[in-house]
Amino acid sequence: MKCPSCGASLPEDSLTCEYCGSRTTPPSQQHDQDIFRRVKQSPLYADRLSAQRIEKLPKPGIFPLIFIGVFFTLFCGGALFMSIMVIGVGGMFSLSEQSFPFALFPFCMGLVPLGMCAFGVFMAVTMFKRFKSMSSGKVEAVPAIIVGKRTQVSGGSGDSSASTAYFATVEFEDGERKEFMIYDGSLYGRISEDDAGILFSREQFAVDFDRVRI
What we know:
This protein has 214 residues and is α+β, with helices and mostly antiparallel strands. The chain has six helices and five strands, in the order H-H-H-H-H-E-E-E-H-E-E. The longest helix has 37 residues, at 100-136. The mean pLDDT is 79.
């Protein structure tokens, strides 16, 4: 490796020239910088934030909203019904003065379904916010290199069906690496490690990727 300032020969892993003291860039970083430079010079990069390109970004279907509605209705509705029934039993016991200590037990038990209902509301709100961020969140389009991808399978025990989550790790121009969740399985199949291009993301989700030939 040559020093860019004085031309002296240096070890490949050297960060500073021992002759003139100037900083050097390892060949691997020089290669990555060249890749990012070519990505930023491509027509795809110049068109990345156009209205036509943003309109083509994949959007989640209506199924998540339907799932949220059904989940909220069944889970929260069932928990609220159980709470009313249990508290109602406590109200019947309270009519008798002799059963006063025992009447408190159904009231206390009625708090458990109420807690489940509150948890259901929290989960529904969280899922709705995630859906909103996937469909209408701010779009970031930056040069990136795919450095890794993985899947995570959950469920599948007993009568429950398994679900698969997709993730991709990318490296940015400044050397920072970050893992994004991919909600579109087809995107996971289209990208490979060492692919360079423009990453489209909404918050923690990778939405799309335009590969640039280097």
